């Protein structure tokens, strides 16, 4: 279950203890001692980064893997004790946890897989054909939404989805029924907010990928009479499949860890109707003071993230 | 000639359709942006996009005060400036041997770095909080800066190494024969040659930290230490969101630096942000 974590530590700790071994540069033979010393000197510049990463990233991850199995609490506790898998058993028996898992799944599928990914691909495809001013304008607007700080994006979409907000004003104008979206469909509202905020990334990735397809190939298919959708399905998508994989992974990982956007828009509410795992974890840690339990939830999130991350590595393997 | 004409006509109608589609998306995406722009100068702003009831700078006047704007922005600057400096220096140093010397450990190290770039940092924040309480780094600027730097380092090293690979090694070999050390050739030759790359890493790290809410939200508690990303939520979120015009004005003041920085590097790299390409490898 925690297989990814030792991997981080051992590989990260390697260079410090052993030092890179030079793979025989053309400088002739040396004594083993000199070559080890030279390897250490060469690896020296890596050490500040390595120390930071070990202390502040690998350290907390290892600590996470430890306190997830304890009953550590936030306040006034002399010492915590090892409780085995109790936190995990508690989580899977907790309705609110299951609710958070479902909501995280809905949030990820709707906003990342369906939303950002599809809309990003559609925008990139349309941009291939559109005129330059329209392309620049659209790109500018979509990228602005992406560059804005998370909390600002949260406020803007809070205003957009409130009963007195822009969306309902438009619906009223169209004589369609209105509602307070943040109360009736909060998870959908925050999912759309995440689409608004994150589509630019997919758009940039897919634009880069589409630009690399030689135009002769699509033109040849066009001459052979393949229609737009068939060209997309049989030629474009297979040619950019690596980018699709990369993009899906990165989108999913980013979406799994969204906190600020949802926090600003709904605080996870009403009730717990938009409480995804990061918000559930936060509530358990600070409202309920159960650090150990919250860390167990964090560890689950980290493990899921690590699995996605490993798949992502696999996709990139030939490029490292 | 007939087929060419129809092909051209088809291409034109396809272009029109594409333009229409893009404009529709752009219109939808710009609604929330229009709200923040219009509300910031509206004396009676509410939650929907509307033409302002007259133009006013009162909203900006109301927020441009020490405790609401300047202290949080200064805190943001210290946190993100410090974090970015640390990230860029460590990443440049670490990228050099990874890019220049062949070693059996390069590949595992780079794979670990790449693995770490995509870990959900949100998930480690509760343990980081618990850890920081134990080592007395909680509620300190330096602790937050160190964590910011560590969380941004994997991606910074990865980007920096890729940019550094683009600088030909031959240029340094001349310097080596003249007796320059690795550090000298890094600072005097490699880094100046990869100026745009260093700019991208710097701006990217800074923008990520400037917008980050969760890290300072968890690690900083004292009101006069919190950065703009958290203070905006404290000031407006807890007040029941009454002063929408002021909230909009603050959002603009707080967002402008990162938008300008983005425009700066986007221009420098000639349009498409290299991030897409960089992430792909």
TrEMBL record, chain B:
Keywords, ordered alphabetically: Cell membrane, Membrane, Transmembrane, Transmembrane helix, Transport
Pfam families in alphabetical order: BPD_transp_1
Residues that span the membrane, as ranges: 20-38, 73-96, 108-132, 144-160, 198-221, 241-265
SUPFAM superfamilies in UniProt: MetI-like
Name of the protein: Carbohydrate ABC transporter permease
Subcellular localization: Cell membrane
Chain ranges of the ABC transmembrane type-1 domain: 73-265
Keyword Magnesium annotated: no
Organism of this sequence: Streptomyces gilvifuscus
Bilayer topology annotation: Multi-pass membrane protein
InterPro entries: BP-dep_ABC_trans_perm (IPR050901), MetI-like (IPR000515), MetI-like_sf (IPR035906)
Recorded family membership: Belongs to the binding-protein-dependent transport system permease family.
């Amino acid at each position: 279950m925690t297989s990814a974590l030792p991997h981080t530590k051992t590989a990260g700790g390697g260079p410090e203890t052993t030092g890179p071994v030079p793979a025989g540069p053309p400088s002739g033979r040396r004594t083993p001692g000199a070559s080890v010393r030279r390897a250490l000197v060469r690896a020296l510049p890596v050490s500040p980064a390595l120390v930071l990463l070990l202390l502040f990233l690998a350290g907390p991850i290892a600590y996470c893997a430890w306190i997830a199995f304890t009953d550590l609490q936030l306040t006034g506790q002399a010492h915590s004790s090892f409780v085995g898998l109790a936190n995990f058993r508690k989580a899977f028996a907790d309705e609110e946890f299951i609710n958070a898992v479902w909501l995280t799944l809905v949030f990820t599928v709707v906003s990342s897989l369906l939303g950002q990914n599809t809309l990003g691909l559609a925008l990139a495809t349309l941009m291939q054909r559109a005129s330059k001013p329209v392309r620049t304008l659209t790109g500018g607007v979509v990228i602005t939404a992406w560059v804005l700080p998370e909390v600002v994006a949260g406020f803007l979409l809070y205003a957009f989805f409130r009963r007195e907000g822009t969306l309902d004003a438009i619906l009223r104008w169209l004589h369609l029924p209105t509602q307070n979206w943040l109360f009736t469909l909060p998870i959908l509202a925050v999912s759309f907010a995440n689409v608004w905020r994150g589509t630019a990334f997919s758009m940039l990735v897919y634009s880069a990928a589409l630009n690399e397809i030689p135009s002769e190939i699509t033109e040849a298919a066009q001459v052979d009479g393949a229609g737009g959708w068939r060209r997309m399905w049989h030629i474009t998508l297979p040619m950019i499949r690596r980018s699709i994989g990369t993009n899906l992974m990165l989108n999913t990982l980013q979406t799994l860890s969204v906190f600020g956007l949802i926090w600003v828009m709904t605080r996870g509410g009403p009730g717990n109707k938009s409480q995804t795992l990061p918000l559930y974890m936060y509530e358990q840690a600070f409202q309920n003071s159960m650090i150990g339990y919250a860390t167990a939830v964090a560890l689950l999130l980290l493990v899921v993230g690590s699995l996605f991350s490993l798949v992502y590595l696999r996709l990139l393997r030939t490029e490292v | 000639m007939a087929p060419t004409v129809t092909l051209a006509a088809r291409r034109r109608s396809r272009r029109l359709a594409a333009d229409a589609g893009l404009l529709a998306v752009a219109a939808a995406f710009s609604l929330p942006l229009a709200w923040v722009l219009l509300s910031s100068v509206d004396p009676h702003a509410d939650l929907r996009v509307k033409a302002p009831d007259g133009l006013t700078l009162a909203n900006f006047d109301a927020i441009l005060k020490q405790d609401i704007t300047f202290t949080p922005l200064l805190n943001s600057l210290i946190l993100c400036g410090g974090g970015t400096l640390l990230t860029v220096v460590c990443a440049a140093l670490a990228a050099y041997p990874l890019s220049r010397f062949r070693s059996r450990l390069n590949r595992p190290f780079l794979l670990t770095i790449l693995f770490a770039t995509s870990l959900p940092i949100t998930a480690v924040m509760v343990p980081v909080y618990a850890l920081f309480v134990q080592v007395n780094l909680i509620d300190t600027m330096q602790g937050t800066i160190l964590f910011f730097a560590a969380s941004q380092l994997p991606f910074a090293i990865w980007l920096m190494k890729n940019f550094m690979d683009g600088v030909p090694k031959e240029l340094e070999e001349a310097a080596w024969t003249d007796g320059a050390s690795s550090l000298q050739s890094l600072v005097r030759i490699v880094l100046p040659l990869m100026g745009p790359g260093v700019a991208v890493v710097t701006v990217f790290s800074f923008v990520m930290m400037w917008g980050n809410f969760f890290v300072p939200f968890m690690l900083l508690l004292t009101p006069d230490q919190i950065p703009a990303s958290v203070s905006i939520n404290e000031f407006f979120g807890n007040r029941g969101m009454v002063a929408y015009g002021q909230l909009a004005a603050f959002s603009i003041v707080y967002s402008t630096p990162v938008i300008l920085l983005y425009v700066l590097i986007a221009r420098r790299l000639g349009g498409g942000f290299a991030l897409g390409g960089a992430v792909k490898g």
